[in-house]
Amino acid sequence: MSQVTIPTAKLTRKDFMSDQEVRWCPGCGDYSILAQMQKVLPELAIDRAKLVFISGIGCASRFPYYMNTYGFHTIHGRAPAIATGLKISRPELDVWVVTGDGDGLSIGGNHLIHALRRNIDIKILLFNNRIYGLTKGQYSPTSELGKVTKSTPFGSLDYPLSPVEIALGAEATFVARSVDVEIKHLQDTLKRAHEHTGSAFIEILQNCNVFNDGAWEPITNRATKADHQLILEHGKPLIFGKNNEKGIRLGKDMNPEIVNLGDGVDASELLVHDETNPGMAYILSRLGPQFPTPIGVFRTVKRMSYDEGANAQIETAKKRLGPGDLEAILNRGDTWVVK
Amino acid sequence: MSTHAEAPPQPKVPKRLEELDEVVIRFAGDSGDGMQLAGMQFTNETAVAGTDLATLPDFPAEIRAPAGTLFGVSGFQVNFSSHDIFTPGDQPDVLVMMNPAALKVNLRDLKPGGSIIADTAEFTEPNLKKAGYASNPLEDGSLAKYQVFPVNITQMTLRALEGLNLNTKVATRCKNFYALGLTSWLFTRPIEPTVRWIESRFKKTPELVEANARALKAGYHFGETAEMFAVQYEVKPARLSPGKYRNITGNTATALGFIAAAERAGVPLFLGSYPITPASDILHEIAGYKNFNVYTFQAEDEIAAVGAALGAAYGGAIGICTTSGPGMLLKQEMINLAVVAELPLIIADVQRAGPSTGMPTKTEQADLLMAIYGRASESPVVVLAPATPGDCFFMAFEAVRIATKYMVPVVFLSDGYLGNGAEPWRIPQVSELPKVEIHFRTSPEGFQPYMRDPETLARPWVRPGTPGLEHRIGGLAKEDVTGHVSYDALNNEKMVRLRAEKVARVAMDIPPTAIRGDRSGKLLVVGWGSTYGAIVEAVERLRGQGKSISHVHLRHLNPLPPDLKDIVRGFERVLVPELNMGQLLKIMRAEYLVDAIGMNKIQGQPFKVGELMDRMQELVEA
């Protein structure tokens, strides 16, 4: 708003910070996500004017106000729909959607799955803190069963859903998971999402220190995370543990199982991650609670994006029918002249 | 007698040609009988013949209701005349009836002494029973006061198609064209436009071109040769104002209006839509014009449809969406955002009878208050309403012009009767169309997202991608000028008033209100939307009898024309006929403190001229 300089030199993190004071609670995981985004963007050498952040409603959705780019803070759950119209008609723009577990999976679940299945070339960041923050602490669609909150004093009765599974089920062409405090991993994941053409979906495990502190505790705690994170790398075996001593292989019943390497088990028996294999993504998305939480890119495949197709159709129509002739379509069909 | 198309024999009896001034025909049959198609093709034939016309398609919501049932009857009424006409007619002169159920449903409307052409093949015992007839009305003398033409349309169609190797089911389906051919002969309408239509419609299946064209011609020649038709009727061309004409429905005109406006603006058109009766045809029409830089997006729901349109408008396209009442109410949330974001967004609501799913294929005007008021908080938008099918073109165009000039959402209120109804339309020259001037802000010099044009109060339209103008907008309360989030009390009131004032200033763009009749007198009739034709006809007839009645028809519903207040004051009484419970009436009473009287009909059907005349007469004589 007040910054009107047209950048010529290489941009820095500061160029992406707006003049608005950030108003998340102190200690919120959102600060880190915002910082990583602002750090990554200069490296991607994107024209800042072409960046658009679109959000819905919720704590996460304040994100656009803090980015010195184009931004549109819209309606609860509807950001993917608005981003879709923008990206189709302005394919040259770099459109990001910022949403949360309530915004994206509860009120906006329908728009999210349809944006993903259409493979619109937008990047969707879903901040998952398993709670409603902005409305002060009701359970969300990712809250665990039996969650005691203000609206569920006797415990919640609905089973949670998994954002990654929803994205895979909707056939998203890029599906990843990262963590607010895993700075390097989050930066790399944002970069990879940006490189992808088509819908890119990142679930970012994020801590709400006011209403749901420690929701991702074992995954984020330095002391426990090695046993609770399964870092996914394309072409690498599924290994985890402090000393990389544990692995995952397919058992005899075709179910994954945890094995200790060295106990007569060779690394060659382990499952090897393949980002292009839908079966692998499915297995990883459905690992039970006894398994570590996979972090990284579950799936990335190439497929025509909707906006690409929509614009190609226009070009094809122009070639086949010639450029639009208003006179001709007004006079279409049977006509007669009155003198 | 032969029914073969190729070699029509000469008529055995000389036919008399009788001239008529105006004829109303209603085609009706099962919803699968192709009566809408027959009606539309007849309309096109009569349009090409140069008569004035108006149509009323009236069909059930069921795609293929059980055959022979009363609720499955689908009808299409067309009124054509050698003089100006404004409505599809109150009472048909002719019924073309494909089965007993159609006759049962439609007979009560037929003029005394009117004609009935009926397909005798369908007047079987089971069909008569389904329609609730104890005996065959074609034979039991109950139709004595009408002129009945019993014709075995089904059998004659099959005979005409002999040798084409079609199975009976497919061949029987051609009977609507046989009935159309016969009716075309009876009223001397040219069948060539229909032959051309058949050729283009079925070009991928030559056997169907042959079959339908043969059935059409066979029906035509049957009229020529059969002794029962002694008289052929002619309706001379109407003296319409000079120009080139085509027949057009409201939905097609709406589609063309949007395309024309975007084309004149030099900006891509983006239509976000979700299929809904009776608006879907606009989506279908526009989807065929991709070569005009037109995007059509069939969304996952009504909300996403308008969301995508708003996203496109944010990106600098003409963002429109098309819907009907039940969809309109889902869009209000997004329109609410567009009000605060001050982006141009056009919503076409082709109203239908409700509430809820209601009667999807029937017409109504009951979304007016929802369009003007039905959103959270103070959320002013511009509301326009076309008066006739052809007027849909100009009002759609006007909606785009106003939305982009004032950076404001505009609701375009059509309805089922306008959308599906047709009339001859004088095709405008492209050069006659007003300019749609669009200015995207590109200069960073002194830029603020909510700075305003001093005349229109519009804020600048900035396309994302413009260097140096990066900024954020959203649904949270905006600080004046900067657009920063602000919870300041006085600022909020200022912004609410600014947005209201912006909409109020659209009144500067409304041309002086046209009055049919004198500027003062006993009765002023104020209408809006699709009631135009019926009101004009009623007012003209009563004025012809010397009654002191005038008529004003509003096309701008919010804001209202600035001169309306004075006009209203010039009359002893004001009547507001509407197809709702009195919505414009409420607004008129509130705005002008006038003791206006409502006339309301909520039957899913347009007003009849007769009922309007009765009420007007009462009021003018009281």
Tell me briefly what this model is.
Chain A is an alpha/beta fold.
What's the Cα radius of gyration of chain A?
23 Å
Specify the CATH architecture of the largest domain in chain B: 3-Layer(aba) Sandwich
Number of helices of chain A: 11
Reading side by side through the largest sheet of chain A, how are the strands ordered? 2-1-3-4-6-5-11-7
Provide the succession of SSEs of chain A.
Answer: HEEHEHHEHEHEHHEEEEHEHHE
| Rg measurement of chain B, Å | 27 Å
Order of strands, widest sheet of chain B:
11-10-12-13-15-14-21
User: According to CATH, what is the topology of the largest domain in chain B?
Assistant: Pyruvate-ferredoxin Oxidoreductase, domain 3
Please write the CATH class name of the largest domain in chain B.
Alpha Beta
CATH homolog superfamily of the domain at 13-215 and 304-310 in chain A: Thiamin diphosphate (ThDP)-binding fold, Pyr/PP domains
The CATH C-level class name of the domain at 13-215 and 304-310 in chain A: Alpha Beta
Per CATH, the architecture of the domain at 13-215 and 304-310 in chain A is 3-Layer(aba) Sandwich
Fraction in helix of chain B: 25-40%
Strand content of chain B: 15-25%
State the end-to-end CA separation of chain A. Answer: 59 Å
- The proportion of residues in beta strands of chain A is 15-25%
- Unreliable spans of chain B are 1-9
The helical percent of chain A reads: 25-40%
Shape of chain B: globular
Please give the structural blueprint.
The complex is a heterodimer of chains A (339) and B (622).
Chain A: H1 30-44, E1 51-55, E2 70-73, H2 79-89, E3 94-100, H3 101-107, H4 109-118, E4 123-128, H5 163-169, E5 174-179, H6 183-195, E6 200-205, H7 217-220, H8 225-228, E7 229-231, E8 239-240, E9 246-250, E10 256-260, H9 278-285, E11 293-300, H10 306-321, H11 326-330, E12 335-338
Helix pairs in contact in A: 1-6, 2-10, 3-4
Chain B: E1 16-20, E2 22-30, H1 35-48, E3 52-58, E4 73-81, E5 94-97, H2 100-106, E6 115-119, H3 125-130, E7 147-151, H4 153-160, H5 168-172, H6 175-186, H7 192-201, H8 206-225, E8 231-235, E9 243-249, H9 250-265, E10 269-273, H10 280-287, E11 294-298, H11 302-314, E12 318-323, H12 325-341, E13 345-351, H13 368-373, E14 382-384, H14 391-406, E15 409-415, H15 416-420, E16 422-426, E17 472-474, H16 489-504, E18 515-516, E19 521-528, H17 532-544, E20 549-554, E21 556-558, H18 564-569, E22 571-578, H19 583-592, E23 597-600, H20 609-621
Parallel strand pairs in B: 1-8, 2-5, 5-6, 6-7, 10-11, 10-12, 12-13, 13-15, 14-15, 19-20, 19-22, 22-23
Antiparallel strand pairs in B: 2-4, 3-4, 9-16, 14-21, 18-20
Helix pairs in contact in B: 1-6, 1-7, 4-8, 6-8, 7-8, 9-10, 9-14, 11-12, 17-20
